[in-house]
Structure formats: structure tokens, C-alpha cells
Amino acid sequence: MMGPAHSLSGAAAWLGVGAAAAATGHAMPWPVLVVGALITAGAALAPDLDHKSATISRAFGPVSRGLCEIVDKLSHAVYKATRMRGDSQRNGGHRTLTHTWVWAVLIGAGASAAAVTGGRWAVLGILFVHLVLAVEGLLWRAARMSSDVLVWLLGATSAWILAGVLDEPGNGSDWLFTAPGQEYLWLGLPIVLGALVHDIGDALTVSGCPILWPIPIGRKRWYPVGPPKAMRFRAGSWVELKVLMPAFMVLGGVGGAAAVAVVMTCRSSGRS
Q: Nearest 5°: CA angle at 69, between 86 and 85?
């Protein structure tokens, strides 16, 4: 999948989670719903950090390009060290380590740990990175026409404002995890979700995606999970642009409306 479709699917997934959480009695405050959707939209681009031509490799200039090279080499090394006889030879690390459930969980857990132990500046850093990526994915046409500095300023300003909103009592810094010292522990959840949604999206394409690594399937440890080949499509094809992206918009709108409706109902009940 291309970057915009990944970001849209990520945002739609979080809004769907918001509706499901509300239905099970864990309704998200509206700032958590909004911030989580933006983080997931950004995190849905992150697995392509192993690809030098991906949106994320350009998002932060020389820093992201250098990190992309490191991650590509690391992913390739892990692939070679763990592949089985059925796995093919590869020259690079794209769609290997960063496209697995293991990577998704580790990145999400690391973000949660950083948010809890690093305080406000760690939270701001997490928000900044993912908001910049969300802009690059959701507003990709405008981002391409703007300078990187303007996108970074938008990300930094938005991160500062949204962190301030979340810090207000009842606005969600302690959503789901309410014990003292667990504020922002939930920040890892949209990051895990975004990475997994990216992997699922790539699994629908011609090449498939090794989401289940390191679980061996047949003679392969890097088995490219996906539907039957007749149901797959090429990245950037009309299926993605004309079918999937509009569907993600509709699903996201429905999920967001359902989650907000439950929040408003709970508030009205509380007042009465």
C-alpha cells in the first residue's frame, strides 16, 4: 500500500477501536479519540522505515534517511540469521523485521515505557514524530508542496497543544490505566495498532507480508501472509485508490461518530 492509504486505514482503525471501547464501558475522552487517531495514522507509516523511498524516510530529512539505512541493514541481518530453507535470498531488508507483530509490540511497548518514565518531554517527542507522519500521510499533497520546516512546525505546535489538552483533568492522560504513575501508558496502543494495520494492508498486496515471524509456516520462517493471490492487488492500483481509501474514510467516520455519541451520552447522563 501507499502512504496515504496506510494513514487512512490507521486512523479508521483507531476510531473503530474507540467505538468498541465505548461499547465495552471504556469510552475514550474526545482528546484520546483524536490524538489516538492521529498517532495511529502516523504509526501506520513507520514500518516502512526499512525502505529508502518511503514517506517516513523523507519525513525528517537526514535523520530519517540515516535511520532508514540502519534499519534496512538491521532487518536484512535478522532476515539472513533466521531464514529457513524455504525463504528466498534477499538483497535488502524491506518487508522483513519491521513488518512483523514482534516489531509492532516492541515499538509500542518502548513508546509506553518512554511516556511513563520520560515525563512531558517524552510525550511531546512521541506526539511530534507521529503528528509529522500523520500530516505526511493524511495531507500528503499539501505536505509535498510545503517545506519540511513548515510540516515540522505544524507537528511541534500541534503536539504542544494536544499534550496540554490531554493533561487537563478528565481529558485522557490516564485513560484505561488509572493508577498513579501510569499517565500516558496508553500511548503505545495506537502505535502497535498502526504498525499492525500497516502489515495487514501490505498483506493484501501482491508480495504479502511476513506478519507472523518468527513462527515457521511450512519451510519458511518469513512466510508472506496474504489472501489468495487472485484477491491481491498492486500498491497504488485502482483498488487501493478507488475502493479501499473511500472505504477507510467511511469506516473511520462511522467509528468516530459512534464513539463520540457514546461519550456525549455518558456526559449527559452524568449531568442528569
A: 10
Q: Are 4 and 249 in contact (CB under 8 A)?
A: no
CA angle at residue 14 from 10 to 18, to 5 degrees?
165
Contact 221, 83 (CB under 8 A): yes
- The neighbour count for residue 125, using CB atoms within 10 Å, is 15
pTM for this entry? 0.88
Q: Rounded to whole angstroms, how far apart are CA atoms 231 and 202?
A: 13
Q: What mean pLDDT do residues 246-262 have?
A: 59
Helix axis angle for 30-43 and 101-138, nearest 10°, is 100
According to the model, what pLDDT value does residue 251 have? 62
Report residue 197 as a C-alpha cell. 494495520
Vertex 44: Cα angle to 23 and 217 (nearest 5):
90
Contact between residue 222 and residue 83 where contact means Cβ atoms under 8 Å apart: yes
Closest CA to 129 of 103, 155, 157, 98: 155
